[in-house]
Specification:
Blueprint lengths: L2 H29 L8 E9 L2 E4 L1 H10 L3 E12 L10 E12 L5 E12 L2 E11 L5
Parallel strand pairs: 1-6
Antiparallel strand pairs: 1-2, 3-4, 4-5, 5-6
Keywords: Cytoplasm, Nucleus, Protein transport, Transport
GO biological process, one term: mRNA transport
Protein name: NTF2-related export protein
Length: 137
């Protein structure tokens, strides 16, 4: 298989994985928040609008304290990370944007970036950065 074919396969896999992963993630955060810890690595990192949580137990506690949410995605992009930094570990960078409603408040635009990695037959979040877009310049 040529380098181009190998990269194309990895990109296709990243896109397919991102679609399935984000569907599971946003269903969980909006409707099954008590199960969020299972999506993160034991030492996963979350930065949510400038507030941080480290480790899946702290991340679970953080999500339990957030107001109820309703997310709508408008864009989704995924790229394989092919670098010595991840060796042969299958790892993807996923970028999402859309709108979110927090506890009945008006919809606000958001952006979110995940780094996920294969752990056995499951995908786990290594890092997660969520940012509300409050106002324009």
């Amino acid at each position: 298989m040529s380098f181009y074919q190998m990269m194309r396969t990895q990109i296709d896999t990243a896109c397919t994985t991102a679609e399935a992963f984000t569907k599971l993630y946003y269903e969980s955060v909006d409707k099954k928040r008590h199960q969020m810890a299972r999506l993160y690595m034991d030492n996963g990192l979350l930065v949510w609008n400038g507030n941080g949580a480290n480790g899946k137990d702290d991340i679970q506690k953080f999500f339990q304290e957030l107001p109820r949410t309703e997310h709508t995605l408008t864009t989704l992009d995924a790229q394989p990370i092919v670098d010595d930094a991840v060796a042969t570990q299958l790892t993807f960078l996923i970028q999402v944007s859309g709108t979110v409603r927090l506890s009945g408040a008006p919809m606000k635009p958001f952006q979110q970036t995940f780094m996920i990695t294969a752990q056995g037959d499951k995908w786990k979040i290594v890092s997660d950065c969520f940012r509300l877009q409050d106002g324009l310049f």
